[in-house]
Amino acid sequence: MVQQQNSQRTIFMADDDEDDRMLFLDAILELNLSVVVESAVDGLQLLDMLSQAVQQLPEIIFLDINMPGKNGFECLEEIRSAKGDLQGVKVVMLSTSSNPENIELCYELGADLYAVKPSTFADLKKLLLKVFQLDWYAVKKGNKRILMA
């Protein structure tokens, strides 16, 4: 977990690749974003974290597609079928895949945004900055927007 002083925003991220998780956390730190990041190594751990986060649900979940146990599609489907406040949590699919079928399925399952993982650390920071500067009220469900650095 990475925490900064006076943090008010909480985000969760799930990715089975340790390097990707570390780069994500490093980018958040370098951008000096005022967030608490909870990371999961797979979909099962993410869903467990969400079930225990009754008091403090994340504002955004960054979700990789290809993970063991439960993949990103399965996690997204469970998140969107859950009852209660979890429905309001924004889900950003963050994957190396730019396959149109994967993108379409993510939006069909209820993703708020699809972002292709950048190949450089600088581009990852640009991408994260874009996500955190988004006006979520202007992001319409089903827009099928693909975010890139």
TrEMBL record:
Gene3D superfamilies tied to this protein: 3.40.50.2300
Q: Which residues carry this modification: 4-aspartylphosphate?
A: 64
Q: What InterPro entries is this protein classified in?
A: CheY-like_superfamily, Sig_transdc_resp-reg_receiver, TCS_response_regulator
Alphabetized, the UniProt keywords read: Phosphoprotein
Q: What's a GO biological-process term for it?
A: phosphorelay signal transduction system
Identification of the protein by name:
Response regulator receiver domain-containing protein
**What's the superkingdom here?**
Bacteria
Is Cytoplasm one of the keywords?
Answer: no
Give me the segments passing through the membrane: none
**Any Pfam family hit:** Response_reg
Q: Which residues form the Response regulatory domain?
A: 10-132
